[in-house]
Amino acid sequence: MYKLTYKQYFDALKEGKLLGLKCNDCGSYTAPPKLCCDKCGSTSTEVVSLSGKGVIKTFTVIRVSPEGYEAPYIVAMAELEEGPWLMGNLINVDPDKAKMDNIIGKKVTVSAKILPKMNYTPDEGVTPAFVIAE
Amino acid sequence: MRKVAVMGVGMTKFGPTEKSQVELFAEAAMEAINTSNIKPKDVQALFLGNGLGDFEEGQLNLAGFCANELGLPPETTAMRFEGACASASIAIRNAFLLVASGAYDIVVAGGTERALSMGTSLATRTFAMGTDSKYEEFSGLTFPGVFAMLAHLYADKYNVPLPKLKERMAMVAVKNHKNGAKNPLAQFQKEITVETVLKGFVVADPLQLFDCCPFSDGAAAVIVTTDEIAKKHVEKPVYILGAGQGSAGSLCRQKDYTIMPSRIASAKQAYKMAGVEPKDIDVAEVHDCFTIAEIVLLENLGLFEFGTASEAVEKGETEIGGKIAVNPSGGLKAKGHPVGATGAAQVYEIVKQLRGECGARQVENAKIGMTDTLGGDAGSIVNLIFGI
Ligand SMILES: [Zn+2]
């Protein structure tokens, strides 16, 4: 039933390929993947490669981190060229220099960051890593 | 559907405790039972909100233990409801629906939590489990982080300079601490100033310590029953006029979450069922887990226009005596936020407000009250509307 599971999505991301789903009914893109089109709910979708390019919409610098993570680091959301937003880490900016005017609206490319298996996770973790392109 | 009322209510003091989650809940529930002038054996079902008991005490399946602790008979239905911070509100909404439908006549509903037992690092991790554990948690996202990003989105979208927005956010904390100082059950009963907030250490840019609600222990419970039974047992029943609940997926799929469709949908259901409009609400207990959260939710509930709530806060429109009294209890910010109990504590306050029993923090002439509880990053939202 699944065109693209989270495991397949992460395996591709680890190799530098950002995959998503394109809806055969409404034409919109869904990423990260789920069972149906995020816009219209259709299950008639196909797996496509996304450009991996986007723009930062918002961010924060985490200074009090959860168990297993070391602060400070930047968490950001980027809007991809195809429309979906992704949550990830912005990795090429010094957290102490991150301000709204030098982050929001900046163009980024998407790569992957891999985390070892932790307590209460079924396997290793993969998260999008954003790099400001300009 | 039968007309449904809340009879007695009960709540422990919020803050550090040496009691177990079962003991906390039993204390709140017994107060609710006693002030309803009923006996434990009259209760047919126990609906328990609990977020993280598994991590706090290594305890699953809490509801049965709570029922037994209270001396409820073996035929009692006892269930835990989990929707992160909205757990107790989900429990109360289900009590409302099942009493309305005729399945039960008397239900004790509420929640319990002992988050302080985990310490900051594990608590931050387990709270973050309310975000998407596949697609978001591996970024190291925390709950302060979710609302920190919301503050940046809000400032950018509505062109409010960040220092201005931060000052207005600080005023939310100042107001809620001012109210909390008049609430003997609040975790913090101390007034603060805008400077206190702006001097705090940064938790997640741009949120500082006093922009964030605390980790808390505590419990609250209410007795949900029919109009007829309530009138026989208590002088001032408070009626549940409307209830709504919405859902949503990962934050990234919600995109610009200054607008939360799950919250808008939930509130719309509640207003429609109650036959009221936002302008009819006199008092609201809402989910101010972070200062920016209160600003954004006021807009999503339709109490203020989009993009205007931060200014309304600055003008004092959300104070007791303002256009609408928001969080007279002190809110999550000052009263405390024992996750699984929070929704029940909101209902506790609204019931007491509508009965006119809130002393120094009483909202004068309060006739219609509303609660708003957010679970996770808008994955579960519940709104309840009450009247007398
Ligand atoms: Zn579609």
Outline the structure in words.
The complex is a heterodimer of chains A (134) and B (388). Chain A is mainly beta and 134 residues long. Chain A is built from two helices and eight strands, in the order H-E-E-E-E-E-E-H-E-E. Chain A has two domains: 50 residues, no CATH class; 84 residues, Beta Barrel (OB fold (Dihydrolipoamide Acetyltransferase, E2P)). By secondary structure, chain B is α/β, with parallel strands linked by helices. Helix content of chain B is 39%, strand content 19%. Classes of the chains: A mainly beta (134), B alpha/beta (388). Chains A and B meet through strand 4, strand 5, strand 6 and strand 8 of A and helix 5, helix 6, strand 5 and helix 10 of B. Zinc ion (ZN) binds next to loops of chain A.
What's the architecture of the largest domain in chain A, going by CATH?
Beta Barrel
| Beta-strand percent range of chain A | 35-45%
Arithmetic mean of pLDDT of chain B? 97
Order of helices and strands of chain B: EHEHHEHEHHHHEEEHEHHEHHEHHEE
Detail the poorly predicted runs of chain B.
none
The radius of gyration of chain B is 19 Å
Q: How many β-strand stretches of chain B?
A: 12
Which tags fit this structure?
heterodimer, A: 134 residues, mainly beta, OB fold (Dihydrolipoamide Acetyltransferase, E2P), five-stranded mixed beta barrel, three-stranded antiparallel β-sheet, 2 helices, B: 388 residues, alpha/beta, Peroxisomal Thiolase, Chain A, domain 1, ten-stranded mixed β-sheet, two-stranded antiparallel ribbon, 15 helices, 12 strands, binds zinc ion
